[in-house]
Amino acid sequence: MAKNALETLIETAAAATGPMAVDEPRAEGSSIDPCGLRETNFDMMNEVCDGLNNVARHIRPFTLVAWAWRRALRIAEQRGAALNDVEDLEKFVARCETVFAWSCFLDDRNADIPGAQALAPFLSQGSYRFSGSHWESFRKIRRNSTGFSAPANYGPGLRSLGWTLRNAANARALVPSPDAAAAIDAFEARLGDRLSHPVFNTFGEAEVTTEDVSAWAAAWKLDALTYEERVHMRRALTGDLATRTRAEGVGLLLSAAGQLAHCDPAGAEGVISVRNAAAGEVAEFAVPERFEAAAVKWRRLQVRQLFRFALEALLAWAVDRLSDGPRGSEQLTTAFLREAGIDPTENAGTAWLGATSPSGSLSQASDSIADTLQVRGRAGLGAAIARALAICVANAPEEGSSFDREDRLPLRRAAQQAIARASLPSRELARHVIETWVLAQHVYWAVGRGLQDARGSGKRILRLKVVMEEGGWQALPGAGLSPQPTPDRIRTALKLAEEAQLISLPTGLAASGVR
Questions:
Q1: One domain for residues 435 and 498
Q2: Distance separating alpha carbons of residues 41 and 167, to the nearest angstrom
Q3: Nearest 5°: CA angle at 149, between 143 and 153?
Q4: DSSP states of 109-178 as a string?
Q5: Per residue in 83-113, pLDDT tens?
Q6: How many CB atoms neighbour CB 201 within 10 A?
Q7: Which of 117, 234, 389, 423 has the fewest CB atoms within 10 Å, i.e. is most exposed?
């Protein structure tokens, strides 16, 4: 067995008799979750939109995968095959997924499904034979990346939204849920005589031409949904197949979407409006009594989202300041307060925390950070971060939650630390925020996850952006950061609801054909 990166490093160091030249490191860089704060955001999303993610925004891929598993199981049954080895079934389902995606991208190169880059070579060739080393390699890579069944895509929702069940005989094989039978039947009826093609009828080798794929496009395109598919998704979002938290969370979003008169609720403008309403920032929207608990959770989520975004932006700000050479914590603190327009000698409670209204708009604070991150030189970023953090401290929960982990910096604890320093000069709070909430938090997570990668899979991923040198904090080469707000599943919920006809486009937009 090949040694992992950490074992190799330890052995090399132990055998060294003195300094030696080494090869340039080939570690991959990563800026994902640099402070280890995003997992808490996902846990909070599960309190209002469990079972959804930010990718699985359409009904048809769920139907396609559930149907493919049913088809594969029936073929296996006809052949008298056992489920001890499900490799043939998995290959069949992967083939159906690939042909469907190929068809979608032939119809629309910008189709809103995973795999545009992976499927691009298919679009320029006349046919493809599903066999051999290329197919095996493609299938295995796509299984955990751009495949519909991948954990980051439609995979989790297949079970949580009632499309499939785990097979008691073999956990790798999925079984279509009886609740989804009507939707799967209706979808299969759409395919008609296309089902006679070997790609849908056999295990093993099969060849598909571009003409075949083009001919199938109309029958299973993303927006050509059957009534039964829409009904199933209604049940999964707010009906008898939904958890209580999902039904209430999505119900609140649908109520907020009902107030929109001039835009597509699932479009960019509509998603922003619904998010603001759910967070209590639209005076015209009165939260229905049955959704009040969900509204509290949605606002708490948006506060935490802003907190995470502000701290990652502050890390990006620090890395920018360190690009010219090392600086100590005092220098960073002085520069930050100067940019934020805060007197470093005045007490933090007055000059910083109390200078921003506790009821300040969460969305405006987030937009301000996002906008200044795009400005040349990022002018104004310090002030935007300071305002955002003041709003977060003012709206922090007083009690912890089950998902709070101390090493993920709960907002409750951060607020307690800020309030404890409110009577001290602002420079004391700013230094604590920069050193503890940002730099120490980043180093702890970057080093810990890097070691975990090396020990677990031998991956060499450089997550660390800054280190402590003799002259102070030092940015590592290529350490720039461009944080983005974490998607919060609202677009997914609204798009699925729109496809399920739980909400509809305003009359003017519907008449104009906007989708």
A1: no
A2: 31
A3: 100
A4: TT-SSS-HHHHHHHHTSSEEES-HHHHHHHHHHHHTTTSTTSTTTTHHHHHHTTSEEE-SS-TTSEEE-G
A5: 667 899 999 999 999 999 999 999 999 999 9
A6: 13
A7: 117
In angstroms, rounded to a whole number, what is the distance separating the alpha carbons of residues 338 and 208? 64
Q: Which amino acid belongs to residue 424? A: L
Give pLDDT tens digits for 432-490. 999 999 999 999 998 887 676 666 666 677 788 999 988 899 998 877 899 999 889 99
Apex 297 CA angle, 296 and 302, nearest 5: 100
List the single range of 7-11, 57-61, 285-289 with lowest mean pLDDT.
7-11
Residues 112 and 70 placed together within one structural domain of the fold: yes
- What pLDDT, in 10s, does the model give residues 375-432? 999 999 999 999 999 999 999 998 888 888 888 999 999 999 999 999 999 999 999 9
In the numeric block, which tokens belong to residue 53? 């993610």
- Token pair of 28, please? 């991959």
3-state SS of 106-125?
HHCCCCCCCCHHHHHHHHCC
Lowest average pLDDT, out of 9-13, 51-55, 86-90, 341-345, goes to: 9-13
Q: Which long-range contacts (CB under 8 A, 24 or more apart) does 168-177 make?
A: 169/83, 170/83, 170/84, 170/86, 172/86, 172/90, 173/69, 173/73, 173/83, 173/86, 173/89, 173/90, 174/65, 174/66, 174/69, 175/69, 175/73, 176/66, 176/67, 176/69, 176/70, 177/66
Return the structure tokens found at 239.
């009906």
Task: Give long-range contacts, CB 8 A cutoff, 24+ apart: 433-438.
Answer: 433/314, 433/389, 434/314, 434/318, 434/329, 434/332, 434/333, 434/336, 435/329, 437/311, 437/314, 437/409, 438/35, 438/311, 438/314, 438/315, 438/318
**200 & 100 share domain:** yes
16: confidence class by pLDDT, cuts 50, 70, 90: confident
Dihedral-angle region of residue 125 (phi above 0 means left; psi in -120 to 50 means alpha; beta otherwise): beta
What is the extent of the structural domain holding 415? 28-47+296-475
* Cα–Cα dist 330/514, whole Å: 54
d(CA 419, CA 438): 18
Query: Which of 394, 444, 384 is CA-nearest to residue 418?
Result: 394
Structural domain count, the chain: 3
To the nearest 10 degrees (0 to 180), the angle between helices 60-78 and 87-107 is 140
DSSP state of 293: H
The C-alpha atoms of residue 274 and residue 251 are separated, in whole angstroms, by 12
1 vs 274, higher pLDDT:
274
Predicted local confidence at residue 345, as pLDDT: 97
Query: What tokens appear for 435 in the block?
Result: 């050193």
Same domain, 43 and 64: no
Residue pair 169/163 in contact by the 8 Å Cβ criterion: no
Are 226 and 87 within one domain?
A: yes
285 and 301 assigned to the same domain: no
